[in-house]
What we know:
Blueprint: H1 2-9, H2 65-101, E1 161-162, H3 175-179, H4 185-197, E2 202-209, E3 215-222, H5 226-236, E4 253-255, E5 269-275, E6 283-291, E7 294-302, H6 308-322
Antiparallel strand pairs: 1-2, 2-3, 3-7, 4-5, 5-6, 6-7
Amino acid sequence: MTEQTTSVEEQAPLPPAPRPTDKPLADPSVGPAAESPADPSVDPAAESPVEPPAEPPVVTPAEPPVKVKKDRRVLRAVLRWTAAAVVFAAVGTSAAYGITRMERTDVPGLATESDGRWDYPEITMPPLPEGSPRPFDDANKAGTHYADLRRLVLPAPRGAKPDAALRGEDGWLATKTFLAEYASKDDRETLGQLLTDDGLRNIAARGWRTPDGTHTRIYLLHFGTAAVVDELGTVDLTSYNSPKYAMGGAAAMSRDDEYPDRAGVDDVVRMAYVETKPYGAEHVREAYLTAGDTLAVIVQSREGVAKAVPFQQTVVLQSQLLG
Length: 323
């Protein structure tokens, strides 16, 4: 379409049309009038020396050459502009059809505005020891994650600042650091004993803060079997409507009904919650994931409102790493 536009715009402007004359132009093929021959019956000597007036020449009606040139120039201009209009109409129609057939992000200048998703680096599954099955293979009845759990924690998105408090020692986090997420001292003691009784092996964690102020924390708690995790995650720690233990700064939590069901990952059970009004100093979202022998706890908080899209994105990606 750009080439068609350029060709029309580069046309030289038409010169102003000449003004039509008030009198018809003479036919150049008609010469000056010839003198009339003298009448032989009249004595030339008796006549006046003044010659009789000659009859006016007969002008044959003809289209003046200059007028023909003007009309042809105007005709050519009309034809050119008509052709250009047809080309623009055709190109415009085809372009409009093309846009309706393209995704919005494929059209320059019409890319869809970001919906708030974070820019995560490319995520790959860590290698398994040779001969080891994946956690949900039929041969893996205990749902064991044989990969290094520290490599199953979701990496931080680009531009985020790491949370040094969750680095732990050699990548393993102390249980008391995880328990510090919960508001009540009594709850922390109860949960600590519950984790011990269920045979908690270790905790891998990662946290970060994005430029918009969202603080993300991910904890992977590793146990002996999938049966223990299923009981802990779906009975001991959570209920359908709310978690059983309150996180710090979020006294009232409810089931996140806006979380799309289609965002689930096979074999991973998800329970997602959101803080209800009135909010505390920061708005909190949290999720519990049971995946084989591993329980994941994901917490996001932000002053104002913790956005739903990056929370859902984070939960889905972590679920895929555990699946």
